[in-house]
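User: Structure tokens for both sequences below?

Assistant:
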Amino acid sequence: MTEPRPVPYGASAQITLRQDDDEHTRRLRAYSHLYRVGQRYRIIRAVGTAAFAAAPLVTWQLPGIADYVAAAAGAWLIVSRLLLGWAETRQVEAAVNVQELYDTELFLLPWNTAVSGEPPLPEVVTDAARKMKPDSRFDAWFRTDLDGVPWPADALLCQRESAVWSRADHRGYGLALLTVSAMLFLGTLAFGLLEDLTLVDYLIKLGLPISPALLDTVELGRTHLRFAGRRERLVRDMTDLVKEHRASLADVPASECRRVQDEAYRLRRDAPRVPKFYYDLRRNARHATTVEGNAELLGRPRA
């Protein structure tokens, strides 16, 4: 039995034209807002953790409060990971569901309730979108040249563009976090040696106060690298699909695009967020790299 198609065989989904329609930009703004709120919880956690990382500067001058600072650091570790972490997770899950709605509607793919649950209500999307003002950066979100590319290959190339971008961000930010954590640990260790601290003094005055920051940073960095690896495998999977059907892109199985979308959903749901400042830092370069990569995959001249 032939798979039902939302467009005639060989026709395009017109993604690059339709993506700027109001219904799609509204969903794009909505999930961007929801991610931003989730990021605020992450920032609160980061600020609190950084404050305890700087606590040794205080306890060094006021050694009498070292025990209290160490106890507070332990309490903060619980509040940060359980309470604020829970709030961040809930917000991100809402954002991921709206992003899934954006993708499936734009790519003309069916919603998979078994993986994503029920789609978000229209009121949720509308309310979140209203809190994010229209911005030119939301225009032409996918920039791969899809001229003459039929559905579902055009959807697959957009999925690949998104995954390549995320892979690079996770890898770069993960390496940066591990570098910071190593510098933090080595810096406090060197300071303790210079001051000829005993092991007990080092733990109370330096080790325990910085432990939340150190643990969070190392754990987060390793998690980013792990998800960069998963994105890498997904990108290679999509690359193989395009190569396999390059002679007849209309024959790309829509079920394969749905399978790719399921994995993309899981990655978005479970992966840690890359901060906006880091995302913006490499935004234009990421666009150029992903667009040129897709062009090369199609055997087209690079922009």
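Moving on to the next sequence.
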Amino acid sequence: MTRAARRAAWVLLAAVVAGALVIASAGDRGGPATAQARADAIGDGVRCPTCRGQAVTDSAAPAATAIREEIERRIRAGQSEAQVESYLVGRYGEDILLTPPSRGVGGLVWVLPVLGLGIAGGVLGIALRRWSRRTLASATEADRALVERASRMERA
């Protein structure tokens, strides 16, 4: 494989990964249609204050039931998802949300894994390139002669 072909393959791989990240981050922007479905979607992203890491839609705790009822009441009153979440954050704090915020320090939760993977991939690529060069450069004249003799024997 030529150097240009390898470079083109890496560029294509980077484009595919970038496209996949864009598509994955876009998500379903349409949102649920019914009020109950909207309330369930919001409840899936809200932590039960008395349970460990459990969404209010999955919990039978009294606090979770109260939060579900409050979410449903606010949805029926015509509030948007952002307004309901803002109310819950104001009442319980940022920890009430199961999904960390994408701004400020919470944004590091989203950025650091991607940066880590990118850096690890770059380091791995550099290491492989150095390894392959060192392997080729360490061949002695005797090794090259042996390979040449073997190649001639195969052709014959």
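User: Anything stand out in the second?

Assistant: The chain is about 70% helix and 0% strand.
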